Amino acid sequence: GYIQLTLRRSLATPEKQYVGFATLPNQVHRKSVKKGFDFTLMVAGESGMGKSTLVNSLFLTDLYKDRKLLNAEERINQTVEIIKHTVDIEEKGVKLKLTIVDTPGFGDAVNNNECWKPITDYIDQQFEQYFRDESGLNRKNIQDNRVHCCLYFIPPFGHGLRPVDVEFMKALHEKVNIIPLIAKADCLTPNEIKKLKDRIREEIDKFGIKVYQFPECDSDEDEEFKQLDRELKSYVTMVFATSK
């Protein structure tokens, strides 16, 4: 009778048999979803490249509704600034605190010598702040303001990378994931896009610039997932931003 009663109990509550590390992934997942995620995206490139339009389209929000448009003279005299826009997004119960770091003034001056310096200084400051917070006693409510990704907008009307493009990406590629984009690609023909894309790829390799690459997927993944992974890798090599 005792054996039958024990067997019935074990069959009735099989989910309670796992109370150790087997449930750890689920516990971590629940905790992460409840807390939410932080993502900081930097957008860089000269004015008029469609940066704000692309960001608003990506996240279906208007982050630049209070933006002041400068005239040509004001742009020339403007220095590089760092402006943060933060918005809370929730999708299917998952919360995301999105921070967009804009860099107005970059590449707009006549002399763009070291115009990327304020940007690299800002990225370094966020790393140092996060390290100090991690080294402190109270690590429960640490805010991660490190820049996770940088979208760099390349003008479509050149013949490849300009010196400022090369120097900017070389200054940042060891600090942040860089994704180069050809801005306003819809003003070019498909043949022109292909030529410009190939030229920029060659120059990125020539100057030893490290752009973001998707990590390799596990060998035991199914073929459909591997094909999706290959397609994403081909897209991320050079993304096209259109002006709509």
From TrEMBL:
Record-annotated site: Important for dimerization: F157
Keyword set, alphabetical order: GTP-binding, Nucleotide-binding
Domain spans labelled Septin-type G: 35-244
InterPro entries: G_SEPTIN_dom, P-loop_NTPase, Septin
Pfam family for this entry, one: Septin
Xref: PROSITE patterns: G_SEPTIN
PANTHER family in the record: SEPTIN
UniProt-recorded name of the protein: Septin 5a
Taxonomic classification: Eukaryota, Metazoa, Chordata, Craniata, Vertebrata
